[in-house]
Amino acid sequence: MEERGVQEEAVIVSRPAPDHLWTYFERAWRTAPERLALHVDGRGWTYAELAVRALAVSEAVQRHQPNGPFVGLHAHRSIGAYAGLLGILHAGKAYVPLNPQVPADRLSTIAGLADLELIVADAAREASAQDLAARRSAPCGIVLAGDAIGPAAPHRAGQEAYMLFTSGSTGVPKGVPIRHASVVAYVEHLLERFEAGPEDRFSQTFELTFDLSVHDLFVCWAAGASLHVLPQDQLMAPARFIREHGITQWFSVPSAAVLLDRMRLLKPGAFPSLRVSAFCGEPLPADLAVKWAAATPNGRVENLYGPTEATIAITGHVLDPAAPKARHGILCIGRPFPGARVRVVDADGNDAPIGELWLGGPQLSTGYWKDPERTATAFVIGGPDRERYYRTGDQVQRDADGDLYFISRLDDQVKVRGHRIELQEVNQVLKAVSGGAFAYALAHPVRDGIAQGIEAFLPLALQAEGASILEACALRLPEYMVPARLHFTDDIPFTTSGKADLRALRARLEEPARTGDR
Amino acid sequence: MSFNEVTVRERIRTALTPRLTEMGLTQADVGDGMSLTQSGVLDSFALMELIGRLEQDLHVELDFESVEPEQFTTVKGLAAAFVKALTA
User: Which of A:403-442 have CB within 8 Å of B?
Assistant: First the structure.
């Protein structure tokens, strides 16, 4: 295993793994109630202060007695967001983040898909939560999170901890429910791997709609450490935040490092407080990782990999700055975590050095919410062990040491700054709002191995309507899925199999400005 | 050539024009104190590219160490940061 830099003597006191995420928080709270648990929106909250606010939410949720396993969470970088999330879990429900930055139409769709009968909101989102509830076809209540009231009530553990919606190729988001047991399998390994302890200070960069946020919250609270939420306007330049908060455990998409580097802030020795810096969500360029390592002389750099369906991350690699293991400049994604099963499978379903990555083990989701068809396609029984595997659609290569390298996607899914996007979903929305006969979206430009945005091709007749098409997209899609640029042409190249030739379209984008663009 | 905040703001606004036209917006829609990233005019990468172009045009490098992150997302804050760098 790649345990370079990991001390022999484990810092974590040996204790049984819980069956519920709340237990991680409760243990830290009971051990050190006055310790800092969270820093958000300009102030700190101790474990005790956060606990009474979470329990108030739990009590209110239980009073409402919503049917079904899921409760909405409509809150953003506030005490209400974190107390709300914990309170929902304590009440035995699973949370579905309804990010206020996402257009109301999409949130309304998600609320319908998840059959939400209750939405927990922070004080600032009361009005938009009311709107969301009013748009539900079934009755839907509201609970405000953030105030400290109510006694502790015993919690009943549901199977699921949360459900996240990812981009779906048919134009409708896919719900991925994740069980407490899956997160616990992840957290138990990460506590040990990252040697997390009460003195640690964790960053919180990820939106709650992105499952990497679950690492921030529960690896942190399981260790009894404090969580430091970056204000929205500091996400693109976190240098000062890291220093002022003395962050010891950093976790973000590689894009954050790219931006710091462009600002000339990734200087040797810049961040001495960092012990562990982890990156996930998109390919990590090896030279960038080496620069980050030089900027964090007292820490190490970890590259993690994993899809939402397999809970947060499931493989990892510790960077050796003197000799980075990379392929075409992109750092390897390492080996599976203990307990995870990995197969590299060729087109005939046989194990091979290059092929599709299949994942198995306790971190696997039970399947897509209310979608047995897509569940049956993506979650299969296979391999000599006849175990359940999730087919990632990621093409990988495995080297002689057993280390994995990401090569490409096998379908139309792309990553833009860590966000997973089905280009088909963008195409469906473009066609619906424009009335055009076709729409072809692709990720462009790609710099340092990282896609920066979406551009799309539409029929020439729509040229005059570009601005209104983009405006209509912005009402239906999250910001990162809205094309940055539209190109209008009736000259679409096709492959011999009759599909639009995206490679040829991409080549056109590399050419200097063409007429018909806007 | 001498620069002050007014002339630098004009430079920034000129550099933004193609993007605004693309979005169906006009100069009047973008206030000097409005966050370019949170309003969706630019994402963080596009903002860094804009800053890079301005740095080349004005033959100066911003000191990001001393600029508040929330400052360089507005026309006003960005202009102030450039004037500070130009007069340093």
Answer: 417
The answer to whether B29 contacts chain A (CB < 8 Å) is: no
Cβ-Cβ contacts under 8 Å, B23 against chain A: 467, 470-471
Q: Are A121 and A75 in contact (CB under 8 A)?
A: yes
Are B37 and A236 a contacting pair at CB < 8 A?
A: yes
Q: How many CA atoms lie within 13 A of A103 on its CB side?
A: 16
Reading the block at residue A288, the tokens are 């960038």
Domains, chain A, ranges and CATH? 335-405 (2.30.38.10), 413-510 (3.30.300.30)
- Answer whether residue A2 shows pLDDT above 80: no
3-state SS of A260-291? HHHCCCCCCCCCCCCCEEEECCCCCEHHHHHH
d(CA A292, CA A279): 11
Distance CA A314, CA A342 (A): 9
Which residue has 């939400």 as its token pair? A116
Window 357-396 of A, Cβ < 8 Å to B: none
Which tokens in the block code for residue A157? 């553990």
CATH number at residue B19: 1.10.1200.10
Answer whether B47 touches A (CB < 8 Å): yes
| More confident site: A24 or B88 | A24
Arithmetic mean of pLDDT, A398-408: 93
Note whether B45 contacts A452, CB cutoff 8 Å. yes
According to the model, what pLDDT value does residue A516 have? Answer: 46
Tell me the pTM: 0.80
Residue A63: band (very low, low, confident or very high) from pLDDT cuts 50, 70, 90:
confident
- Nearest by CB to A240, from B23, B46, B69: name it: B69
Question: Strands, DSSP E only, in A180-238?
Answer: 201-204, 226-229
Residue reference for tokens 């981009």 = A167
For residue B68, the model assigns a pLDDT of 80
**Structural domains of chain B, count:** 1
Q: How confident is the model at residue A411 (pLDDT cuts 50, 70, 90)?
A: confident
Q: Whole domain around residue B45: which residue ranges?
A: 5-87
Query: What is the nearest CA distance from B86 to chain A, expressed in angstroms?
Result: 17
Contact B48/A263, CB-based, under 8 Å? yes
CB-based contacts of A76, cutoff 8 Å, min separation 6: A99, A100, A101, A122, A124, A125
Task: Count residue pairs from A and B with Cβ separation < 8 A.
Answer: 66
Euclidean distance between CA atoms A448 and A452, whole angstroms: 10
Pairing mode, if any, of strands A354-360 and A70-74? Answer: unpaired
Closest approach of A234 to chain B, Cα-based (Å): 6
Q: Of A36, A21, A51, A254, which is closest to residue A149 (Cα–Cα)?
A: A51
